[in-house]
Amino acid sequence: MRDGWIRAFVVAAVAEACSWAALLAGMAVKYGPPRNEIGVQVFGPIHGALFVAYGLLVLVVARRCRWSLVQTGLALASSVPPFATVVFERWARRRGLLSAAVSAPAAAEPPRVGVGG
Fold first, then answer.
1. pTM higher than 0.90, yes or no?
2. How far is Cα of residue 17 from the mean position of the Cα atoms in its chain?
3. Three-state secondary structure readout of 36-82
4. Torsion of CA 32, 33, 36, 40, to 10 degrees
5. What is the pLDDT of residues 10-31, one digit of tens each?
C-alpha cells in the first residue's frame, strides 16, 4: 500500500498538470481577442503554488523511495514543460519507483553480548 507522501505526490503531479492547462487557457484569453488578464491573475498564483508543492514532494518522495539523482532530476525537470508531471508519474509507477516507501533505517542497536559464553 502506498504511503501518504506518495499519494500526495501523485495528486500534486496531476494538479500541477491541470493548473498548466488553466494557465495556458488564461494566457490564450489574455493575448487573444478578449484581451482579459483575469485568467492569468487567477491561475498564475495557483500554478505557482502547485509548482512549488510538486517540487517539494519530489524531494520527499525521492528520499523516502531512494531514487537516484538522475530520477530525482527527471522528476524535478518534468515540472517545467506542460503536462510532463503526469508523464513522469506514470513512468515512475511503471518502473516501480512509487512502490511503498522504504522506511528510514532504524538506529543501529549495539550488538548483544551473551553472558557466560
1. no
2. 11
3. CCHHHHHHHHHHHHHHHHHHHHHHHHHHHCCCCHHHHHHHHHCCCCC
4. -10
5. 999 999 999 999 999 999 999 9
DSSP 99: S
Within 10 angstroms of residue 97's Cβ, the number of other Cβ atoms is: 19
Q: 47 with 22: CB under 8 angstroms?
A: yes
Type and span of the H or E element at 31? helix 4-31
Question: What pLDDT, on a 0 to 100 scale, did the predictor assign at position 1?
Answer: 41
CA 47/CA 54 separation, integer angstroms: 10
pLDDT averaged over every residue in the chain: 89
Burial of residue 92, with CB atoms counted within 10 A of its CB: 0-12 exposed, 13-18 middle, 19 or more buried: buried
